[in-house]
Amino acid sequence: MSDDTKKTLGTRTLGVKRTVEGKVQQQFSHGRKNTVVVERKKRRVLTKPGETPAPAPVEEEAKAPPPPPPAAKEAPKRTPKTSEADETLSRKEKQEKLLREAEEARLAQLEDARRREDEAKKQATEEEAKRAEDNRKAEKTASKAEEEAAEAVSEAEVEAEAVAEGEADASGGPALDPDKPAPRSFTPVAKPKRPDKKKDDGGRPSKRDDRKERSKLTVNRALRDGEGGVRSRSLAALKRAREKEKEKRAHADDGPQVKKARDVVVPEAITVGELAKRMDEKGADLVKSLFKMGMAVTVNQTVDQDTAELLVTEFGHNIQRVSESDVEIGIEGDEDKDADLKPRPPVVTIMGHVDHGKTSLLDALRGTDVVAGEAGGITQHIGAYQVKTKEGTEITFLDTPGHEAFTAMRARGANVTDIVIIVVAANDGIMPQTIEAINHTKAAGVPMIIAINKMDAEGADAKNVRARLLEHEVVVEEMSGDVQDVEVSALKRTGLDELMEKITLQAELLELKANPDRAAEGTVIEAKLDKGRGPVATILVSRGTLKTGDIFVVGAESGKVRAMVNDKGEQVKEAGPSVPVEVLGLSGVPGAGDPLTVVPDEARAREVAEYRADVLQRARTTQTPTSVENMFSAMAEEQAIEFPVVIKADTQGSVEAIIGSLENISTDDIRVRVLHSGVGGITESDVTLASASKVPIIGFHVRANAKAREVAQRDNVKFKYFDVIYDLIDEIRGEMAGELGPEKVETVVGRAEVKEVFPAGKKDKAAGLLVTDGFIKKGLHTRLMRDDVIVSATTIASLRRFKDDVDEVRSGLECGVLLEDTNDVKPGDTLEVFEVELRERTL
Questions:
Q1: Is 358 annotated as a binding residue?
Q2: Could you count the other beta carbons within 10 Å of the beta carbon of residue 512?
Q3: Domains, the chain, with CATH or none
Q4: Does 357 count as an annotated binding residue?
Q5: 747 beta partners
């Protein structure tokens, strides 16, 4: 076969290209190439007579094993002449021949492999067809079973439990275990036979029946849809079916329906809609009942507790009244058992008139100098200190101000104390604040000790003091009474030991005890806003032990104890009963005298604090007039001129004292209105408020910051700084008096009776008078009265006697007058003449 006619399996003719000497590049189908080395030396071939010599070996292609040669066919016998002829072939022809033979062997091998592959594909196709036929038969069988299962599910549709568990009914359907996966669609499942459906010409079910079967919800499909669970649509249908059954049974019952009485919790105020929800009634029914009671309300309106009780009772329910104050129930612990009580230090409060030496006496007892730190040498804050006696016992002292403005502080000190020491100066005797301190002590029901101070001063008379005390029902021991007294001198430090002995004796008689092993409770002695530490409160612990980290509620504020500082400036970790400490960690500045209680968690603390803040807000808020008549009557009552101010002080007690003093100096003509009061320095917001209202800012022991001063200078806001409360009250009293202006004082100087009226000119009328009292003078103010009712207030423009102008007419004489701007004069009227004097006003 020649090279031109040789084509095998549709491939192109193999081409051979000589690259280098001794190497040949082969090109195969699909673009494959290979370079082989051809051995050039001739080999001697030894053959038997009649056999074809074997071809020369060719080196392996790229050192890869050559494909196995095809089955050797019997070659035609060659003569020695042929073998010799082959040996004489040129090198090129031998190479081409060898390549052709190798290609033929490779192609033959490929054809054999392709033939085996075709046979395998054919066999696989037959097996797949057989498997598909088996699947169709299995699907046909499964669909019949699914139809039966679907019929069973539809019959038991109202039984949700049976469907949810996938059980079959008694009709013979197979039970499916929900814990096991559903069988595959091609797995044959043995099912009872059913009559054959319509089939097409090929013996298969018709397409219409097939679509119908596929559209049905079967148990297997339902289980596969929700990972073993029934679809939600079926559960909803079951639920609706059960509700319908219940409704049918309810309507089928002809007996009367018995309404269930409920326990309805009703707060102090509740909306009609919320009340209806708690009663399980319709809101429209409640609105109708209220309308019958004469109240036209809507569902969203609020009714009080009494009205809600009427509605609850009318609808046959039981009411449970609750109050917003119930949030405080249980915040204070139970009473302590006697076995848990332990002795505690006494709390002693020093009270008395201003400048009688209270703080000096405490300085002598403590060995410190507190007076030097107070402005003006008077105490304007309540202080708490602890003093250790020679015997080693501790006594807690509270120092209160003696000025009249600090009445609330003295009352607060008397309420939280065990013993009161009333300091009376031997040279001054009993003074107003001394009497007030005695009354506070009696009201608190605590024992008192009279300390007669300044015995070293000139004119000191202790006997006079004891005698004056009898006027206020205070009988000392020297006068056969039960009140202890001691003569002391804070300056000379005399009598101090005797005073401490009397305090210790009185404390032993009281047998003071408290339980330290419980949640702490205490009272705010003083509170302030510190620039570096924030809100700070001085707490006197009454029972329990206050520890760092405790969560507490104090008044309308809550917080957590971050740190505690004692009266010596040392940080402490805990404070027991009768120990005063400064507490840091409050959410705001509490009010002086507010109770402090430790609570379990922050949520409870915030809840109680919010309730108390809401109560305070409602107390500060003025109620709006409910009608136009009430509004005008309220406006008529507001006749006094208002003097608005903004007050900032260093402590809460000082704010309280300043507000009380300013309210005391208010009169019916002018009264102080505090727009805002607070603790701490004057800030920009305070200046903004004062600027909008055009009012001054009063600063007591505080100053304005740089930003506030800048805004105040721009908006022309006045600052009034004070360090002594005397000066503050005197300054505000003077400004309030100046706001009213000079006081007008009227003095009636004469009265006259109108006898006759004459025309005077074209429009005016002259009155002929008889002066009955005093005198009448030209230019004075006068009131014309008719039947004791003022007709007009005017002045005398002209006064004549006979035809002469005169300046004054005395009692018993007749005269004629011409009144300014009035002609309403009739015989019988009375003319009252008075003078007006302007005097400087004082409050």
A1: yes
A2: 17
A3: 15-121 (no CATH), 138-250 (no CATH), 263-322 (1.10.10), 345-511 (3.40.50.300), 521-619 (2.40.30.10), 639-740 (3.40.50.10050), 743-839 (2.40.30.10)
A4: yes
A5: 835
